[in-house]
Specification:
141 residues; mainly alpha; two-stranded parallel sheet; 5 helices; 2 strands
Amino acid sequence: MSDADDREALRRALAGVKPLARPRRQALRASAPRPVPLQTRRDERAVLAESIAGPLSADEALETGIELTYLRDGLSRQLLRRLRRGHWVVQDDLDLHGMNRVEAAEQVARFVRAAAMRGLRCVRIVHGKGLGSKNREPVLK
């Protein structure tokens, strides 16, 4: 069969066909996008900036329970941000729970030296919250 024969056969087959009436329904529009919580985002950015800038002194932070941070001169604050967000894998950690200040200081020094010798770049030191100490205050923070 040729193309002309195919077209003629199709015309004969569709000779009595009428188009369907259009439906009276309107097509639903896509729902509007959810509103962007701009103020919430601003608040979160402000909290992050404040946590990086560290507005409290070390003594004030110890009293309030807020984390202490230290960043060596010459390093970007973005380094702390990435660390908090889990950008790097923690390669080793040290748990100081149950130690007094002297024991903890020795263990931290030993741990940091060993980590540096092994070439580790991301380690974690867990100091606890002091719930088992006298007056339930942080001792090792």
